[in-house]
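debug: dumping io for the single-chain case to check the tokenizer round-trip. Nothing else runs in this session.
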Amino acid sequence: SEGSSPNGGLSEAERTAHIQAAKPAGWEPNPFTPRAFAEPALNKWLGQMLGPASGIRCVLRYQIDAVEYHVVVQGNHLAIQPIDLLYLLRQDPEDGGSELELRLADYARRQAVPAIPDTAELHLHVRERLPAWDEDIRTFYEIAPLVRALIDLLGDARPLTAEDLLVPEGYEEVEAPRQQLVDELALRMRDARDRLAAVHTDLGVLYTDASRGEAVAGLGPAEASALYPVLRAAAAFGLPGAYPAYQQSPGEEACAQVLNQGLSVAETLSRRLAQVDAAIAEVDPLAGDDARVEAWLDISRMLFGRDFRAIPHFAPRDVAGLQAVWAQREDLCRAMPPFGLESWRQGLAQVRPKMGALDLIDSLVQSFGQMRPPLLPLQLPYKTGDYWLGAAFPEDYAPEDKLSIVTLHGQRLLDTGGSQVGLVLDEWTEEIPFKEQRTGVAFHYDQPDATPPQSLLLAVTPVESGQWDWDDLVYTLIDTLRLAKVRAVEPAQIDQSRYAQLLPAIVAEAIPPQIQAQDDDDGQSPVGIQVVLDFGTNNQE
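debug: decoded output
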């Protein structure tokens, strides 16, 4: 709970967090890529969700002398890590010209048997499944919905900090130290900077002060072929247009194209490297940890693009307390029905987009035969006999304001050695209404605004004296009420009278003789055109 509850009910702060080991491995035996080196924890979790790289495949077909051949490219052939797939599958795999298509074609042209001539057309069949494949084999097209759901889930997720595992005192949230390990984050980003600088150095053969045409003019097929692996390395940093279109024996036109591409990438790398170096120089070593963490996160986006997400590690403040809470997790859910947490998640998936993405990921991971991490709740502060407030609890239980954390891989909190790393996937505050509430009810009732007046009394002073006399107004009201009573009749009183045959067909008023127009009066009759009970007046000429 973030503060004391308002009058309407009990506050419960809900957070859904993913907790991961700080130094995991990635897709084996694929070598680590720059993104995986920069963010190994997220890379590991994505690999668990996506499954082995060898189980993700694509069929490419080509013809030689009217004979059709095909080659199967697997995820482990592309020298990528799970985190790279988040960026390769942002575009539909069936759209032409994507980096994924270039990577698949690159491997096929270098490894296919028989070799694919440079002039042969290569066709990607991203939906095709070969009959010999097992059920656990998936195409890049089939894995794309899971990757997009992961992108949606991670889009607005923020790093988990030590502050998220505390219950602040008082209504206003107390600023607590996040205990993020800024030096560890800086070490990863400096390493990424050095890897970027190494690629820039390899491209220096083209990067000169000369114009583009002059720089390319003195280079030939040997230099163009040597550029292919360097451009592949540059593409690993997310540089748009860096991945080359491979040819075994590039002709003059293909040579000029890849050489110009290399020069363009070298210029882009030079600008990016200068921007990164300037930002590193501006990091104030005397600033607070939070400010330095934000500075290094900005540098990570300069290195890999604005969509890159680096996660700072942190040191929990009260590991022993968290372990004690974790030990009581089963007792906390003792009132829940079977699969209660799954029902909780599925219900939230209908109203919260992030929980909807998490629910979709869970369904897809299960359909692909992968092991999914269970949802496990923690609740702070914990007291003996507590129930989890995310589900129904007994009527005799008196809850208090709580912080509820539903974890994925929550057992990582038991690790007393080293740092922790995680993401807050979604968070919100719920209000549990009190069973009884003492309150007062007040409302404003303004009848003239709600219903227009049905009658109007116009009081005229009997003597024009230039001012109102209080008694005149009082007697006007008294006389009006008396006349209203005299004129008020009930239907039973009319039924036995001579007016029974006329009423209620005609309801009108009688006009006193003194206000009727006289024969010698040229003015307009005050009666006007209204119907009155004095029919003689209606018939006057």
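debug: round-trip ok. Residues 456-538 form one domain.
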